[in-house]
Amino acid sequence: MTRTRCPWGASPPVYVLYHDTEWGVPLRQDQKLFEMLILESAQAGLSWLTVLSKRDAYREAFSGFNPRRIAKYDNTQLTSLLANDRIIRNRRKIESAINNARRYLEVQNEFGSFHGYIWGFVDGHPIQNSWRTLKEIPSSTLESKAMSKDLKARGFTFIGPTICYAYMQAIGMVNDHLVECFRHHAVQNY
Which of 39, 60, 79, 127 has the most CB atoms around its CB within 10 Å? Predict the structure, then answer.
């Protein structure tokens, strides 16, 4: 049986798996939210395929995305990360990941959880869109602009409105599966 998918999620296999199991599923686990935040920030200016293909290497290089450990990274870890050819070796993005771990912990302390804070931008409930073509999907929205502005005010970096919208899509704050995609209805039920 052939399933209809969003066109971007039909190939290669790493996209198919990500599309079919993760993208758009409402996520409320703090450490997983942190992982996706770091990965989306690393994507800036690159394809998601590039980042997704390096995800396991990122997990290994960045202490399993443990924000408490990453927040303590110093020049020794920074130098090691810059030499790691399995990840994106952009100094500003690596420094951003370390900085964002520190800011993430501050948000957790202030709000009790990161998911409580981040999901507040959509009043705790996913936005259910009904797009028929990829061209209809915006690159940013009022919610992603508000998120970006607030995160930047809290000291986060590499977190513009477009990255925030991609993050919202990835963690299920918005359902941007096309209506013909078999996952569109499935993620509505989470």
Answer: 39
Domains in the chain: ranges and CATH: 15-188 (1.10.340.30)
Active site residue 40: yes
Q: Quick one: pLDDT at residue 2? A: 79
Residues in Cβ contact with 37 at an 8 Å cutoff, skipping those fewer than 6 apart: 100, 104, 159, 167
- 52 phi/psi in degrees, rounded to 5: -60, -35
Q: What would the pLDDT profile of 88-114 be if each residue is shown by its tens digit? A: 999 999 999 999 999 999 999 999 999
Active-site residue (options: 15, 23, 40, 58): 40
With vertex at residue 158, the alpha carbon angle to CA 152 and CA 183, rounded to the nearest 5 degrees, is 105
Distances (CA, A) of 170 to 20, 110, 117: 12, 24, 17
